[in-house]
Amino acid sequence: MAFDSLLQAADDFDHTIEGLFQSDPNRITRYVVEAAGICMDYSRHWMTDAVRAELFKQLELQQFDTQREALFAGEAVNTTESRAALHMALRAPSTAAFTVDGRSVMPEVHAELDAMSGFSDAIREGARCGQTNRRFTDVIHLGIGGSDLGPALVYEALKPWVDGPRVHFISNVDGAGLSDLFEILDPETTLSVVVSKSFTTEETMHNAHRVRSWLTDALGEEAIASHVVAVSTNIEAMDAFGIHPEARFRFWDWVGGRFSVWSAVGLSVMIALGAERFRELLAGAHAMDQHFQTTAPEHNLPVMMALLSAWYVTGFGIETQAVVPYADRLAKLPAYLQQLEMESNGKSVDHSGQRLEYDTAPIVWGDAGTNGQHAFFQLFHQGTRVVPLDLWLAANPIGSPQASHQLLMANCLAQLDALSFGTTEASGHRECPGNRPATLFLFESLTPEVLGAVLAAYEHKVFTLSVLWDINPFDQWGVELGKQLCGGVLKQLKTPQSTEPQTATERAIGWIQAHQR
Ligand code: F6P
User: Fold this and answer.
1) Which of 79, 101, 284, 398 is deepest in the core (most CB within 10 A)?
2) Is residue 368 predicted with pLDDT exceeding 80?
3) DSSP secondary structure code for residue 100 in this structure
4) Can you tell me whether residue 192 is helix, strand or coil?
């Protein structure tokens, strides 16, 4: 069976975190990796040098080095769609050597980045205004999944640097959010950015048509040219929607949706922050790329993130992993990582299409600390399940008083000790067994560069896990079925039911129709 020796290592593992610290005081420095402004401390884990060696062996067995080279070489690592996955090119300098099908992609990447910058500057400086020559004060960003989660996270995380128009993110087809916005926004000063790689996603296109009508009702058909911008790989669909040729930005099929925030998908964020800040975000991610590409596993931060995850998922059958950023501005990080990790590695067949005999992506979840301490940390401390944790903590606050930040940091570090060592004297209902693994990620402050490095680190963690599990992290065939079924259900919902329901869905539709007002 795959991973036999890793499973044996897990079977033989009889240490506790407390015991490991007692037997090796130097542990506090030996299980630390630093890269691109992030300090990763994984000393509070079920981890020994022998386990680490076993995990490195698994990387070799899966030819990780060769796979990583293929990724950076622009090979068709997205095997089921015969595409490269070259999101690293989006944040690389123009001199970088990224190619797809033997041709450098850097000229078009930087041409698009420069076009974005010029457009963003024009909006921010008022050189490009709305139909009535008033400056844009608000942006409605329409997108879902990778066309929403990354930009929304970056916008919230970098709020202190927002000095341009406010951005409002609408993703769900539940129209309440957009209706609320229509109540407070002025069409004359609102720019809509429609982001969809396919430009066919039902929710986004439905919302885009609602915004289109809201704008044309107020300003006339000619307003579309100046009030609607689109970002897609689908030029024909943008034409069909009536997007003005100068109001569109493109990205490429070798950029996966959940890896696309670095492209024109991030246009709204650039308009809010300015091109300089956006380029700092890119630079942080590029620094992490260089670290990941050139560093040996033992000192490779994303690789160690992946190996820890594989140790618990594959070695111990642990099914979930929590992410708890001790920063309100990173509250959207767990949701972003849910797509990045679970849509990438939530697979059950290997590259050749054979069903796997082992588990893959854990269920990723979480919320900001200290809030989580008052919601789900009880389970971490006394539950029957072990949930490995990623805790993120800044040394310096931005926009938060030092006294508040000291309290935040004290809570985070205290939780780590409680999770690792538990209670000593208490028993029964009050006993906390401890020995609950957690990684502490420290960084100086939440700057654009650090944020770029954080997101890139998780991208490379996901890739490394896909290599270990021999799966394709860059496709998402599982989401197609629901989309295909939706059309038929919509038709049933619109057709008054005339016969006795024969299925659960028909019964539900019957109940809905009987109760609709
Ligand atoms: O969830 C399926 C999915 O295709 C994601 O992979 C993608 O990020 C999202 O829908 C939105 O797709 P698009 O950018 O094409 O609208």
Assistant:
1) 284
2) yes
3) E
4) strand
Tokens 């100086």, residue located = 444
Q: Please tell me if the CB atom of residue 476 comes closer than 6 angstroms to any atom of ligand 1.
A: yes
DSSP 310-372: HIIIIIH---EEEEEESSGGGTTHHHHHIIIIIIHH--SB-TTSPBPSS--PPEEE---TTGG
pLDDT in tens, 443-458: 999 999 999 999 999 9
Q: Work out which ligand 1 atom sits closest to the CA atom of 204.
A: 16
Does 2 have pLDDT greater than 80? no
Q: In the predicted model, what is the mean pLDDT of the chain?
A: 97
Q: Which residues pair with 33 in a beta bridge?
A: 40
CA–CA distance, 79 with 241 (Å, rounded to integer)? 31
Catalytic residue positions, numbered: 343, 374, 483
Give the span between the Cα atoms of 74 and 82, in whole angstroms.
11
Report the 10 Å Cβ neighbour count for 445: 14
Instruction: Tell which residue, 122, 151, 257, has the closest CA to residue 198.
Output: 257
The answer to whether the CB of 258 is under 6 A from ligand 1 is: yes
CA angle 244, 247, 252 (to 5 degrees): 110
Q: Residue 401, CB half-sphere, CA atoms under 13 Å: how many?
A: 3
CA 479–ligand 1 middle distance (angstroms):
9
Residue 257 near ligand 1, beta carbon < 6 Å: yes
